[in-house]
Amino acid sequence: MPKRKSEKEDEEKRRSKIQKLEKRLERYRSREITTPPNSNNHIEQQGQDEIETEAEAFSILEVEDVTDEGVDSLPNEVLMALGDENAQEKGYGEDIHSDITKRMDGILMKGLPKEQKEIITKNLLIPANMMLLEAPKLNNELNAILSSSTKTRDKLLEGRQQDLGLAGASVLYAIHKLSRGEDKIDIIKSLGDASRLLCNLHYEYTNMRKKLISPHLDKSLSLNLKENTRSDFLYTKLDETVKSLAAIKRASSALKPKPQPQTSTSGSKNCSRGTPPASAALPAPHRHEGPGTPATAANGQRPCQIPIENVAPDAREAYPGGVHLIRQAFSRRMISESGVDVMMASLSANSIKQYSSCLKQWWQYCKTNKVDVFHSSVPTVISYLSSIFYKGASYQTLNCHRSSLSLIIGTHIGTDDRVKRWFKGIFKLRPKMPKYENIWDPSIVLSYIKHWYPLEKLNLEKITKKTAMLLALTTGQRVQTLFYMRINNIRFTEDGAEVIITDILKTTAPGNPPPKIYLPYFREQPQICPATTLSAYINVTKELRHVAESNDHLFLTFKNPHVSATTQTISRWLKQVMADSGVDVSVFSSHSTRHASTSCAHRGGLTVDSILKAVGWSSRSATFARHYNRPLINNVSEQVQFARVVCTAAQNT
Questions:
Q1: How far apart are CA 287 and CA 278, in angstroms?
Q2: In which region does residue 203 sit, left (phi positive, over 0), alpha (psi from -120 to 50) or beta (all else)?
Q3: Which of 116, 158, 180, 531 is the most exposed place for a label (fewest CB within 10 A)?
Q4: What rounded mean pLDDT belongs to the chain?
């Protein structure tokens, strides 16, 4: 609302009056400084000015009072449009019954007991028409490339999201029962279950915030706050805890003896400022004997060098994870962050998972024996491997430990003659034997699934298992390859089906691309024809792929929801068919289909070179001869021939 003309004139007058008062005050202050204090005129003038100043002060107050009273307040409709004034204090609602708060406060402080939570989640079900309340699962494609720590974190979030969905379902059930006028007690129980789940989630998120903050705190403070409960703040009486901890530190430092000055030895005469040589600075297990170690001088002493930074883990320090250790090892070799990212991409998710288990044991060993994680000598590594060996580790397990240590310490660990000699001794003491001495006959399984015909009359479970087994036996591929078969990469011709693998497999390397798989039509026996069965399976699952999350993969689960089958699921299918056929699955795993098919092809007259190319081995690979080419169970033909030859030779003499 614009001001009236009279109001503007009054305001200008007040401003000019204030300016005059300010000028008078300035003159009064200047006379007070220049006039001598014993002057009578000064006294009289001072008294007169004081009177004038007091009068002017009253006039200022009057002006201010008039100004406050003169301003019109805003209309009520404008004030209502602007809303209420912000309250200075946080408002709370009406108190809840004490019996309810006692139950919920305990959950908010200590969480829901595991047994109670299992009972609640077991009895609560997601409504069939509200399936979106269920936490979405991680895609199989992402599961294969993400690190173990990321997948663990996602699993925790998925669990919390599932609890949130169950709480929402419980509230919806209560609303549904209320609308139908059902029993009041059932409605209260549904709302109570939802409240307990929500309070437990509140408690879990409090702990999550503490875990995010804990790494940024002092280690001793973090340990002291581990059992600290929450209040209005995240930690209760944090200031008192900090003060008491500081007092303890001061007292402990006062009790510690003062370090004695070290005297220089003959081995440090050549070092500047009396610094001992690096070889003397570290105990024997810490000395780095890999490539780049300074040569020993003629007098038997090493030349002076900067001591290697000791990174023996602290007794209270938790294992940071395999990915962190490997990245840190690469960074310590003067590799940039972008370079480390590329180097980490060379390791598959399964390799990192396997190495992480070995590196965790190495971390614990270094923590116990105060050994440098990244700069350890060969004798120290052999001592560590020996401790693992005497705990019952096999040759394969020890070999995995050697590979993981070579990754973070250096390749000299694997090529050192002492390590090689030690592993030869391990082979003598605990020899590495082939997994299978003999193998089952594929005709047993083929004869069994041959009766699953005609294909049009099979249910989804049988045609899925039959397709998986036929592809495993007729291609000789791993389950990983079956998993990466995609609908868009399958083409049918007059002679059969061609499957192109575009994903990176275990054997994929520069010069050894993923294989192209050909499945011919076996028209003599259509009951076990792989190409015909594959075509029928694709037609059966065609409608299911429109609703599946990952409809590009060939194999889908035969139970709702029809999603992409994992490698573990496909392996379970193969093992179930083997068991139903009569194969001893307590001895043979699902991977034995690769042994059975390749050995059968070799017995049928196929050359080794052809077998190597068909199943994806390199031409120089000895894997087939060492591990896969096995005789059939109870096959004594070679022994019989040997005995006959010997007997025939004896008969001729």
A1: 9
A2: alpha
A3: 180
A4: 75
Instruction: Give the long-range contacts of residues 619-623, CB within 8 A, separation 24 or more.
Output: none
pLDDT in tens, 236-259: 877 777 777 777 666 666 655 555
How far is Cα 607 from Cα 619, in angstroms, rounded to an integer?
12
Phi, psi of 298 (to 5 degrees): -65, -30
Burial class (CB in 10 A: 0-12, 13-18, 19+), 120: buried
The phi, psi pair for 299, rounded to 5°, reads -85, 10
Helix residue spans in 409-542 (DSSP H)? 412-415, 417-429, 442-449, 460-475, 479-483, 530-540
Torsion of CA 526, 530, 533, 535, to 10 degrees: -120
Query: Which residue from 332, 138, 214, 365 is spatially nearest to 324, judged by alpha carbons?
Result: 332
| DSSP structure class, residue 626 | I
- Cα–Cα distance measured from residue 474 to residue 614, given in angstroms and rounded to the nearest whole number: 10
Q: How many CA atoms lie within 13 A of 111 on its CB side?
A: 12
Nearest to 531 by CA among 475, 575, 465: 475
Are β-strands 490-492 and 496-500 bridged in parallel, bridged antiparallel, or unpaired? antiparallel
Residue 587's pLDDT band, with cuts at 50, 70 and 90, is confident
Measure the CA–CA gap between 412 and 421, rounded to whole angstroms.
14
Q: Taking a C-beta distance cutoff of 8 angstroms, is the pair 209, 234 a contact?
A: yes
Q: What is the DSSP letter of 489?
A: G
Q: Crossing angle for the helix pair 592-603 and 460-475, nearest 10 degrees?
A: 50
**How far is the C-alpha of 592 from the C-alpha of 580, rounded, in Å?**
15
Length of the chain, in residues? 653
| 268/606 Cα distance (integer angstroms) | 70
8 A C-beta contact, residue 290 and residue 324:
no
Instruction: Report yes or no on whether pTM surpasses 0.70.
Output: no
Evaluate whether 438 touches 633 at the Cβ level (below 8 Å): yes
Contact between 499 and 489 under an 8 Å Cβ cutoff? The reply is yes
Residue 154 to residue 132: CA distance in whole angstroms? 18
Q: Please spell the DSSP secondary structure of 525-579, one letter per residue.
A: -GGG-HHHHHHHHHHHTTTGGGT-TTTTBS-B-SSSS--BPPHHHHHHHHHHHHH
Of the candidate ranges 38-47, 78-87, 552-561, 607-616, the one whose mean pLDDT is the lowest: 38-47
302: left (phi over 0), alpha (psi -120 to 50) or beta: beta
Task: Single out the residue of 471, 476, 448, 443 nearest to residue 538, CA to CA.
Answer: 471
The pair phi, psi for residue 556, each rounded to 5°, is -115, 150
Predicted pLDDT at 89: 55
**Dihedral (C-alpha) 325, 137, 481, 577: value to the nearest 10 degrees?**
120
Q: Which are the contacts of 442, defined by CB distance < 8 A and separation ≥ 6?
A: 473, 593, 596, 597, 600
Q: How far is CA 323 from the centre of its chain?
A: 10
SS3 content of the chain, % helix, strand, coil (to 5): 60, 5, 35
- List own/partner pairs for 168-175 with CB under 8 A and 24 or more apart: 168/133, 168/194, 169/124, 169/125, 169/126, 169/127, 169/130, 169/133, 170/124, 170/194, 170/197, 172/127, 172/130, 173/127
What is the distance of C-alpha 427 from the center of its chain? 36
Q: Which amino acid is at 414?
A: G
Give the pLDDT band of residue 71 (cuts 50, 70, 90).
Answer: very low
Q: In whole angstroms, give the CA distance from residue 597 to residue 576.
A: 18
